[in-house]
Amino acid sequence: MKRNVIICTAAALALMAGGPVAVAAAATGDAARAVTTAAAARADVTADGAVDAALKHYPGVVESLDQDGSVWHVNVVAKNGKEAEIDVSGSGKATTRDSDTDTDGNEHASLIAAKVDAKRAMKAALAASPGKVTSLDWDDGDNGGTPYWNAQIKGSDGQTRSVHVDPTSGKATTAPASSNDHDSDNDGS
Predict the structure, then answer these.
(1) Nearest 5 degrees, angle CA 7-CA 9-CA 10?
(2) Are 88 and 53 in contact (CB under 8 A)?
(3) What is the pLDDT of residues 8-36, one digit of tens each?
(4) Which stretches of the chain are assigned E, i.e. beta strand?
(5) Which pTM does this prediction carry?
(6) Contact yes or no for 82/71 (Cβ under 8 A)
(7) What's CA 99's distance to the chain center, in Å?
(8) Residue 13 dihedral angles phi and psi, to the nearest 5°
(9) Three-class DSSP labels, 71-96
(10) Which residues have a Cβ under 8 Å from the Cβ of 84 and sit 6 or more positions away?
(11) Measuring CA to CA, which residue among 112, 115, 114, 159 is closest to residue 134?
(12) How many helices (H) and strands (E) does the chain have?
């Protein structure tokens, strides 16, 4: 009993000081397995992992994704034009938040026909500006412009960069960096 109290106390102190890796190193036996399992359940999914989980849950084409804490909000358009908002938790579990079956099938024709999908756009954006993808949006150019992917990349320097990716060639163009970390869509998240 005393050994378990010592292990739990050491695990708690290690978690406060060094996070899940330190906890796993400090704990032994059953306590180590419990702590490691809990840490794995809290692991943050990357943007790439969120896309995979969302498409496995709702097959189609990713239109956008945005991280809100440890949850990714992924909008997926099926080949028939129907849309769904998928939430992907930090552990990678995908659930449908909302779906729209009244969509015009032609509304997303440029997205569905794009040669560069969301995963390739993120890869191109990260090659142009290394860091972590925090959001990706499809801009269909409905205001007379050319369609493109817009990725927000947070670099190791803390700066957020906007990278535009051409949906045909995959060429990435980086905009000037900003340290602004505010959500620009004003949806309250």
Answers:
(1) 65
(2) yes
(3) 444 444 445 554 444 344 444 444 444 43
(4) 61-68, 71-77, 83-88, 94-100, 132-139, 148-154, 160-165, 172-174
(5) 0.69
(6) no
(7) 19
(8) -65, -40
(9) EEEEEEECCCCCEEEEEECCCCCEEE
(10) 58, 60, 75, 76, 78, 96, 97, 98, 99, 100
(11) 159
(12) 5, 8
